[in-house]
Amino acid sequence: QVQLVESGGGSVQVGGSLRLTCVVSGRTLNNYAMGWFRQAPGKEREFVTDISENGFRQSYVESVKGRFTISRDNARNSVYLQMNNLQPEDTAVYYCAAPRLAFSTEYTFWGQGTQVTVSS
Predict the structure, then answer these.
(1) Confidence grade of residue 108 (pLDDT, cut at 50, 70, 90)
(2) CB atoms within 10 A of CB 51
(3) Cβ 110 vs Cβ 96: under 8 Å
(4) pLDDT digits (tens, 9 = 90+) for 82-92
(5) Closest Cα to residue 112, out of 33, 5, 1, 39?
(6) What H or E segment, with its residue span, contains residue 69?
(7) Which residues have C-beta within 8 Å of that of residue 25, sequence separation ≥ 6?
(8) pLDDT per position as a tens digit, 22-81
(9) Which of 8, 39, 78, 100 could form a disulfide bond with 45, CB atoms 3.0-4.6 angstroms apart?
């Protein structure tokens, strides 16, 4: 059974940084894209970023470009999200996501989420 566990969330002030970690168990990360999503209070879950199977391609929602960086370490079965220059609108629960199929970006497995709160 595939399980995803996020960590690294917390409360920071505007302009601060956080690094989220997602550890995957139940299968190898090889051949699987990975993604991060977030859900702010009263809003729908939205795509933030994802990374290709080999790490060579990353995609970002426009609002985080230049501030967030996704990376992966397949040997550690882990995916990371470095978040810099955090803004109040980044406040949300952040979820790690994995697809069921290799070479797919249809995300079907989700972690429990980690809260990120940015205050001014």
Answers:
(1) very high
(2) 21
(3) yes
(4) 999 999 999 99
(5) 5
(6) strand 68-73
(7) 2, 3, 5, 77
(8) 999 999 999 999 999 999 999 999 999 999 999 999 999 999 999 999 999 999 999 999
(9) 39
